[in-house]
Amino acid sequence: MFFTPWTILILLAFGLSLWAQFRVKGTFNKYMNVPATSGLTGAEAARRMLDENGLQHIRIECVKGSLTDHYDPISKVVRLSEPVYFGNSVAAQSVACHEIGHAIQDKTNYPMLVARHKLFPVVNFSSGVAPFLLLGGFFFKLSGLLLLGIIAFSAAVAFQVITLPVEFNASKRAKDFMIKLGFIKNNEERSAGKVLNAAALTYVAATLVSVLQLAEYLWMFTNSSDED
After folding, report:
1. Which of 44, 82, 99, 189 is labelled catalytic?
2. Domain boundaries, the chain
3. Which end of the chain, N or C, is less surrounded by CB atoms within 10 Å?
């Protein structure tokens, strides 16, 4: 009943998303075993990058888990997973500095990050109601309800699209500062790039899935309107 011309594309994109997740874990694990010549831990590299950018007030905390690293713009805290916080590998430094890239974006009011922050409350609400509106529109054949669901889902898609430049920019800032401050040298630059690119690919794949889903919903809405 819900099989459409878009279904195959969505399944392929979903497969790409799963592959990207496996790749980022594999790449991270691989380069976690490659010590950086600087010998700095992820926490030490993060601290130096923060201080270099006048962000001495931002704290660094260690959290449990793997790849649970993130920057909290509300509390002004960078939280690094244990392998990144204590590790002195190319991967640990790359992930840590990527999160500092977000802290720098916050300080400089990077436009895409500002837009994402403003959109977050809307997405937090719309992502909760969108599934119910979409299902209600499909099952009861109410085009108006379906359209509301599409609009709500569009906000979540917009959030993911905006996230792409935010993540790529944070990775670029990370790599540039890692080279500038001497954290990585020579072949390590390529290794750091692989870690950062693998992580970015997961966002690209997830966004592709969402965009295709939105296209499918729009196609269904158009067809339902034609039938009416």
Report:
1. 99
2. 7-227
3. N
Question: Could you say which DSSP state residue 38 is in?
Answer: T
Given a contact cutoff of 8 angstroms between Cβ atoms, the answer to whether 93 and 192 are in contact is yes
Give the Cα separation of 227 and 225 in Å (integer).
5
The conformational region for residue 182 under phi > 0 = left, psi -120 to 50 = alpha, else beta, is left
DSSP string, 64-117: SSSS--EEETTTTEEEEEHHHHH--BHHHHHHHHHHHHHHHHHHHT-HHHHHHH
User: Is 0.85 surpassed by the pTM of this model?
Assistant: yes
Using the predicted structure, report yes or no on whether residue 220 has a pLDDT greater than 80.
Answer: yes
For 128-175, write each residue's pLDDT tens digit: 999 999 999 988 889 899 999 999 999 999 999 999 999 999 999 999
187 or 129, which is more confident = 129
Judged on CB neighbours under 10 Å (0-12, 13-18, 19+), 192 is buried
What residues have CB less than 8 Å from 195, skipping those under 6 apart?
27, 28, 31, 90, 91, 94, 95
CB 69 within 8 A of CB 79: yes
For 141, the 3-state DSSP assignment is: coil
DSSP label of 184: S
CA distances from 44 to 27, 84, 136, 145, 150 (A): 22, 10, 52, 52, 45
Residues in the chain: 228
Q: Is 99 a catalytic residue?
A: yes
